[in-house]
Amino acid sequence: MAEIHRKPHAIMISVPYQGHINPFLNLALKIASNGFSITFVHFEFVHHRLSKAHHCNKTHVDIFSQARESGLEIRYTTISDGFPLEYDRNANFEEYWGWILREFPARVDEFVGKIIQSDPYLVHFLVADTVFSWPATIAEKYNLVNVSLWTQPALVFTLGYHLDLLRENGHFPCKDNIDEEVNYVPGIKSISTRDLISVVKESEQGQYSMVESVHMGFDQVKKADFILHNTVYELEAETLSALNKYQPNYAIGPVNFFKNLPSYTVSKSLWSESDCTQWLESKPPSSVLYVSFGSFVLTSRQVIEEIAYGLLLSEVNFIWVVREGILSSGDTNIMPDGYEDEVKDKGLIIPWCNQIRVLSNPAIGGFLTHNGWNSTIESMWCGVPMICYPFLYDQPTNRKLVVDDWKCGISLCDGTISVDRKEVAEKIKSFMSGAASKSLRQEANKVKTILHHALEVDGSSQGYFDRFIKDLKEKIH
Ligand code: UDP
């Protein structure tokens, strides 16, 4: 053990949601593989969920044990958020996240303090998610170098960074259904108010915890020493260049596809994964639409029904991830009665899967997605065009990038959540086989090439990562 902390050592505490866990774990492996030692911290309930999802009754299992066997120095530990394990943190998001913003920092303080006091765990730096409300405060108190990981596109970061400008110009809070041009934010040539992050919308102002979260997170990140972005320079050059005028930014994405890491040995999924390979192999190339709204979105029975019958009417093959707990009503009976009998072999409805494995299968021809950033970038990595159906947070802004800027997707409906089965069916049909589908596929392949090249030895993201490591070492010594 004494050996273990001769290397510069970081504490990394992960946000307890799937869309943050995945990039954060990959970043931990990548930093460790560059000669650093990591203490990786999961929330206790996440650790229990991982153990359950991977059918492992031993709750003390160390998710990094195999990574360590391959030579990486990663210790694994947990922190309690103070809530019972079975408390539903998704359904009670407003209460839960408000507590995480305001009360949890005291626990982090105590936790980090203990690690620092206990020789030999000398800590040099902190790597934290930008959405937390405490990284700069803790880093300053314990004299740690402060590295922030932003898991969404740089465009979304820039909007959060310049909330004051949006406020000055009357766009925060912003009326819900207006279409005004925002052309005063550095690094953003032009964006419609419809495509702004949902927390600035008037209707969201009741969601105190999210609005407060953006305020607190961006106040904190303005004091970070390094900001890492899960994006690629070539895709967001103007936005990233403008940000560099304020602080050192490094576009190192797509983080979930870092090369030569034992990433597959580390449990990440909070749900058990269904294996779709056999079913996919029975379908022709590019014939299957993959449908998923991610780990977090809650929706109504009506939306589920319209999507369900829209898929059926389209006559397209599909895999649909219908997550347990997706209904905002809390109802556990999700699908319309008899639906699965009607679908027969045309569709596979599953509670969760290994999304990257599914998207990489040649049978997949498109992705009907909520445009969470991980899903978006995973789809682009696989060259799979998207039908975009954003719900909230960064998702409407991510849609703009996919549809308007990179042209590798279409919108399901015009910025509203309400959908109609006939419209859904028509959109899906023309997306999968209509005249426009060829050009969507071509554009998706262009973006795929950019993403893959970024992680090559001479690619921009690898270059930024190398520069980050060099700058970090200089700062630590
Ligand atoms: N995911 C998965 N299996 C599924 C659905 C999603 O592994 O059945 C993963 C997906 O690969 C992505 C993450 O869950 O990495 C979801 O993150 P995203 O940012 O897309 O959306 P969020 O869940 O944060 O809304």
Could you please describe the fold and organization of this structure?
InterPro entries: UDP_glucos_trans. This is UDP-glycosyltransferase 86A1. GO terms for molecular function: quercetin 3-O-glucosyltransferase activity; quercetin 7-O-glucosyltransferase activity. Keywords: Glycosyltransferase, Transferase. It comes from Sesamum alatum. This protein has helices spanning 18-32, 44-53, 65-69, 93-102, 104-117, 135-141, 154-161, 163-168, 208-221, 237-243, 277-281, 301-314, 339-343, 355-359, 373-381, 395-405, 421-433, 435-454, 460-476; strands spanning 9-13, 37-43, 73-79, 125-129, 145-150, 181-182, 191-192, 226-229, 249-251, 288-292, 317-321, 347-350, 364-369, 386-388, 409-411. It is built from 19 helices and 15 strands. 46% of the residues are buried. By secondary structure, the protein is of the alpha/beta class. The strands form three sheets. A seven-stranded parallel β-sheet has the order 3-2-1-4-5-8-9, sandwiched between helices. Strands 12-11-10-13-14-15 form a six-stranded parallel β-sheet, with helices on both faces. Strands 6-7 form a two-stranded antiparallel sheet. Uridine-5'-diphosphate binds next to α1, α14 and α15.
